[in-house]
Amino acid sequence: MKEIVASDYEKEVLASGNVLVDFYSTECPPCEAVAPKLETLEKLFGEDIKFVKIYRQGNRDLADQLAVKSSPTLLFYQDGEEVSARLTGGVKRSEIVRELKHVLGKEKVSEIMKTQEPTLSDVDVAILGAGPGGLTAGLYLCQARINTVLVDIALPGGNVSTTHMVSNYPGFIEPQPGYMLSHNMSEQTKRCGTTYKVAVDVTNVDLQKKEITIDGQETIRAKRIIIATGTSPNRIGIPGELEYKGQGISYCATCDAKYFVDKEVVVIGGGNSAIEEADFISKFASKITIVHQFDQLQANKIAQEKVFDNPKFSFLFSHEPRAFKKAGDKMVVEVEDLKTKETKTLTSDGIFVFIGQKPNLEMLGGALELDQWGYVKTDEDMRTNIDGVYAVGDVGSKKYRQITTAIADGTIAAISITREIG
């Protein structure tokens, strides 16, 4: 891609017809992830739209003038006017193609996309998922000189990257920001030489053939596959939930309860995980209100006794949340009485949601043997029921799910594979 500076902007962008502009920064993992996607798309669309990049730190006045606040930021121009939506962060190839349709037209883009040739590459190990388990496996395999590629639909780091602070990871006296801990893990694995394919669309996975297809055209064929896709907290799916995730709404008591010392919180849920996590939160918070959709808790009796005997707890049964809002530095949840259909609001310093977790297995089909909760069964070497396929981290069947347990799984799987094919 051609690199320009602020003084070139009028000529190279405003007076150049169709243009895609990439504002990038150095030491920026999302920028590194989007760069090869732009290079391949430039080969496809280069005759119809100009691709240019601008170093944001070196052209701050222009970036400020255009209200570009983060890297990367992709802007799309047509005859000097910005069109389409801006793309920032972990940009996927499919998202760029979608926005190109606003510049070139759907028919033109579809016609060009049909000309791309599918590719096939062979590796020793493909790791699907770049959280702590996948990154650890990638590091061990790389150090064993085993050709490995890490594939993730998001940027590296997994759930750790969205955790505010991590205080129980060995080796650090002070709590570490989750994003920094995951960044350091990722950089260590990357610098070893592991290939990254991140912020991609995984369009097909064939575990029997050991093939992963990304972005609809690039197939990776491996001798071994490690599944490290992790879990996602079940979402309620109401207004404000995504907007305030990490900004007042948390899904992890171990991670965030310590930040609510002598404060009031609301806990959504009444099963085992919700009540056990709420009991942990009570070590810090001054008041906990539990909102549950049923007229009694579903947790085990011992857990129930703990919270019922604790004066910090109050309970709102037969209620469900309908919306989350902000009021200054406070969180507000609107709840509905399922019996009377009346609504009211609860104001607190923070909200914890514990309505279960789900393993991220949607893309993998139904060939894996799962436990009764839908997690992948493995043996002590992390092997699944499919020959040559391993599972590590939170996606696996286990009692405890922490950063350290995921790292242990990744270590075991990598060593097992190294002894087989190293």
Written overview of the protein:
It is a single chain. β19 and β20 form a beta hairpin. α4 crosses α5 and α6 runs parallel beside α7. It contains eleven helices and 24 strands. With 422 residues, it is of the alpha/beta class. Strands 6, 7, 10, 11, 12, 13 and 24 form a seven-stranded mixed beta sheet that branches. It has three domains: 112 residues, Glutaredoxin; 178 residues, FAD/NAD(P)-binding domain; 105 residues, FAD/NAD(P)-binding domain, CATH 3.50.50.60. The model has no long low-confidence stretch (mean pLDDT 94).
Please sum up the structure shown.
The chain has 422 residues and is α/β, with parallel strands linked by helices.
CATH architecture group name of the largest domain:
3-Layer(bba) Sandwich
Structural class: alpha/beta
Poorly predicted sequence stretches spanning 5 or more consecutive residues: none
What CATH calls the topology of the largest domain is FAD/NAD(P)-binding domain
Number of helices: 11
How many β-strand runs? 24
- Tell me the CATH superfamily of the largest domain: FAD/NAD(P)-binding domain
Strand content: 25-35%
CATH class of the largest domain reads Alpha Beta
Overall 3D form: globular
- Please, how many domains? 3
The main sheet comes to: 7 strands, mixed
Oligomeric composition of the shown chains:
single chain
Query: Roughly how many Å apart are the termini?
Result: 38 Å
In percent, how helical is the residue content? 25-40%
Write down the overall mean pLDDT: 94
